[in-house]
């Protein structure tokens, strides 16, 4: 958020993973009201350009912070943790087996109720991972946070598959 909203005093920003999403949305709306390009249509081209740039930055910041997975990636990057693609090979074999089993169950499921049950289970796992991520980042335990991020990616992927199945009607 700090990177995206340069014109906000740093003292008013918190570098925490946990956040109040309603407060985030309220602040987003406030910023967009003041920065939106429509408000600058009668201004100089330089002011219009600045407005477009800042409005785009606020949009990007909001999208990043709104979801736990992208927020976790951002928070780790702020702390200097580089996240290379395809580095999940070191993941715990038991965890990978669990993910494989959930994916297989989802693929074999034929009823909407069963898909919904899997979806609830995955949301609970994501909620737990989000709480653990918050704790790890607050403690400065970046190694654990990086491992949790990998798990969050897997479960977020499954959550998307569940949403697709529900939309398709199984």
From TrEMBL:
Key words, A-Z: Chaperone, Cytoplasm, Mitochondrion
Domain of life (superkingdom): Eukaryota
Keyword Cytoplasm: yes
SMART domains in the cross-refs: DnaJ (SM00271)
GO BP term (any one): [2Fe-2S] cluster assembly
Subcellular location: Cytoplasm; Mitochondrion
Keyword Chaperone among UniProt keywords: yes
One Pfam family it belongs to: HSCB_C
Residue intervals of the J domain: 7-70
Chain segments annotated as coiled-coil in the UniProt record: none
Gene Ontology MF annotations: ATPase activator activity; protein-folding chaperone binding
Signal peptide positions (record): none
GO cellular component: mitochondrion
SUPFAM superfamilies, per the entry: Chaperone J-domain, HSC20 (HSCB), C-terminal oligomerisation domain
Entry's family note: Belongs to the HscB family.
Name of the featured protein: Iron-sulfur cluster co-chaperone protein HscB, mitochondrial-like
